[in-house]
Write a structure and sequence with these properties.
The protein folds into two domains: 49 residues; 172 residues, 60s Ribosomal Protein L30, Chain: A (2-Layer Sandwich), CATH 3.30.1330.60. Helix 1 runs antiparallel to helix 2, helix 2 runs antiparallel to helix 3 and helix 6 packs across helix 7. It is α+β, with helices and mostly antiparallel strands and 224 residues long. It has a five-stranded mixed beta sheet with strand order 1-2-5-3-4.
Length: 224
């Protein structure tokens, strides 16, 4: 997708976000409607940019001074994760954090059973999530293009759910976690090479502010 196409898509998504927000206000359903609008916008951004995980983070953003406050907190959390999870790639995205695990770290070939190194990494992640209970999580599974599309989609979903289950076992509240499988449809590298296929086999964890943190940040921004 060209940069111009992406920019046009994001402009359309911005309009969608405003419309969704307006409908939410008229419906009078408060935070639930706001979260729903964020999910709609996040999904649209994911479709436009080819990243469901990043779309979720961007869709949850509040922007402005409150967004800057959330971003500053996420900077510190990202630093902590980078220092404590050597087997993961930690990336700051907007007002959130994207944690990417190579599937080989978490799972064996064609398996959804988490390996010892993967359990250690997820246990460390769960400790960070428990330390900061004011964030939500989307876990997205991905595969390479080898094999049938439908099988890859199912495998990616099962792996995302396996990682989520382990986080719940470690004490992370189930209400904070969503999962999604994207199979082979969001590659980050060339599937025609071994190295590219290895990059594409991954599990992404999108971490973003929940409604409590957003409201707290808005109040803090309003008092400054």
């Amino acid at each position: 997708m060209s940069d111009l196409h992406i920019l046009r898509s994001l402009a359309l998504i911005g309009a969608l976000g405003v419309a969704a927000g307006g409908c939410a206000s008229k419906a009078g359903t408060g935070a639930v409607a706001g979260a729903g609008a964020g999910a709609v916008v996040g999904g649209a951004i994911g479709a436009a940019t080819g990243s469901t995980a990043k779309g979720a983070i961007i869709g949850a953003a509040v922007g402005g001074a409150a967004g800057a406050i959330i971003g500053d907190q996420m900077d510190r959390r990202a630093d902590e994760l980078e220092d404590s999870i050597p087997g993961a790639d930690i990336e700051r995205v907007g007002e959130g954090i994207l944690v990417t695990f190579e599937s080989g770290i978490l799972f064996g070939f064609d398996s959804t059973t988490i390996q010892p190194a993967g359990r250690s990494n997820l246990a460390t992640l769960s400790s960070n999530l428990e330390k900061y209970p004011d964030s939500n999580v989307l876990i997205v599974g991905h595969t390479d293009s080898v094999g049938a599309d439908t099988y890859n989609m199912t495998l990616s979903q099962r792996r995302a759910e396996s990682a989520a289950s382990y986080l719940r076992q470690q004490g992370v509240d189930a209400s904070r976690i969503r999962t999604e499988g994207r199979g082979e449809i969001e590659p980050v590298a060339d599937n025609s090479t071994d190295a590219g296929r290895q990059e594409n086999r991954r599990v992404e964890v999108a971490i973003f502010a929940n409604e409590e943190l957003k409201e707290r940040a808005k109040e803090q921004a309003g008092s400054n």
